[in-house]
Amino acid sequence: MNPSTVGGQAISSINTMNQSALSQAQIEQFREKGYIIPDYRLPQSTLQSMRQQYEALLEENASVSPDFMLGPHLTTPGSQGIRGSNHWLEFATHPDLMNMAAQLIGEDIILWGTTIFGKPAKNGKETPWHQDGDYYPIRPLETLTIWIALDDVTKDNGPMRFIPGSHKGRKLYSHHWQESGDLTINEVCDSEHFDESRAEDLLLEAGQVSFHDVYMIHGSGANSTARRRSFYCPSDARGLSL
Ligand SMILES: O=C(O)CCC(=O)C(=O)O
After folding, report:
1. CA of 161 relative to ligand 1 center, distance in Å
2. CA of 118 to the centre of ligand 1 (A)
3. pTM above 0.85, yes or no
4. Which residues make Cβ contacts (< 8 Å) with residue 6, sequence separation at least 6?
5. What is the CATH number of the domain that holds 136?
């Protein structure tokens, strides 16, 4: 397998680990529906260490809204001024995750961005319906997003919701700007492009992961429960040289 890169630096080559390999049926499901939940869970020790790093990140960045934290891997402040840590690069490039991503987009992979959608208890913000490609600052859109659940995600604490198959046209639909402090992002996909009644909830236990296509229409409701619903979200692209 080719070496992969993170921010232009070579990372260790990807191990082939059977427990994280996707089946042909799962790969086909990704092509058809635009997302998958593999039969996989991060090792407990990795989840533990992600949660510890998350507590440290929240403490160090108390002035940033935990709903949407861009670039927790940055050690020099990025656009939101976040002071992060390299640990988030290690988590994002966990060999099992790279192995599965390679099955979906090919082996020549670049990790180009990370985000944490923290959705805190009681007042976690809604993420409106959108396509990632509408706001991802990368072209071509040969990229996917991995979701790593740091907490259990249930029907009532603001799960992600996908419109299955909405990625298939491989086109970006019109979005509009919605000014509101109650949203994580303000770009909203115009409602004529999808049927919300077809949405499927992404319910995960902490340590489970999902992969979704960059053209997928998705969003999530607010979290008014007493339970946090945080996700770490690395994005990988293929075949690019930065
Ligand atoms: O975490 C959420 O609820 C939504 C995240 C999302 O929509 C995204 O990654 O583009």
Report:
1. 9
2. 10
3. yes
4. 89, 92, 93, 110, 111
5. 2.60.120.620
